[in-house]
Amino acid sequence: MTQTLKRFLALTAATLGFALPASATTYSIDYTDLWYNAPAESESGWGVNVIQQNEILFVTLFVYGADGTPRWFVGPSVGPSGGANTFSGPLYSVTGPYYGAAWTGVAATQVGSITFNFTSTSNGTLSYNVGAVTVNKNITRQVWRNNNLTGHYIGGTVSVGGACPGGVLISGEMIVTHNHPNVTMGVDFVTAAGQNGHCNYAGTYVQSGSLGAINNGSYNCTINGVANTITGTFSVSEIAASRNGFNGRFTGQDNFCAQTGFFGGVKDVFQ
Questions:
Q1: In Å, how far are 84, 95, 120, 251, 270 from 28, measured between CA atoms?
Q2: Beta bridge partners of residue 241, listed in sequence order
Q3: Which of 22, 140, 131, 28 is nearest to 87 (CA)?
Q4: Alpha-carbon distance 126 to 123, whole Å?
């Protein structure tokens, strides 16, 4: 069993060069989304759009004036303020030409400031002021449609753990079946010792704005014809999906070690 474990922890595919698709930012969790009041649907009708590029948020806030007519404010440079989960910057009111007329430019006036403190992947607090009026809100990502991960991929799991010498790499052909909320994923691979392997993953998919997660997951692996050589539990958070593939952060615990890493793949054009 010790030799089997060593071989399992040194897993490598015949073609090792697969690359997981990237999220929109390398700085932090990608907070790009449409956010509104938490709990969800408690204050439908206003919101804040967040577009993140690296460490900078471009923010547009659509709310209403004292007379009930629409107001919008913009924060074009909301940056880090005390860590990777907190962002602050100036807030502006902007006027410009009538949309049906020739473009002549805009005038921006700073009216206050805006701060985000994200407490998790999907929740946080928003604080902003317009002049003497200060507003504090709990916010969450808005969901109106679930992504579907069904497809053929080249990918799998790459993770490390204190009791996992050399790390864990399960890379090869991956088939995902997603019948919301249930997700099953099967990965065929070849170990460094030339043994055929197959791992089955199953869990519950949850959409949170543009990101997803797989919770309450379990997995088992057959290596060299021996079923359940590896069994464990897992979760995948921050799942970013596109036509090119998907990726997320992996945490797992099996009968040998605890691991953290990444899970995902690129679309297989041959399927």
A1: 6, 33, 11, 18, 33
A2: 246
A3: 28
A4: 10
Q: Look at residue 23 in the predicted model and tell me its pLDDT.
A: 52
**206-217 residue pLDDT tens:** 999 999 999 999
Q: What is the mean pLDDT of residues 170-195?
A: 95
**What's the confidence (pLDDT) of residue 218?**
98
Inter-residue contact 236 to 224 (CB < 8 Å): no
Count of Cβ atoms closer than 10 Å to residue 70 Cβ: 9
Report the mean per-residue pLDDT for the chain.
91
- Asked whether the whole model's pTM tops 0.85, one would answer yes
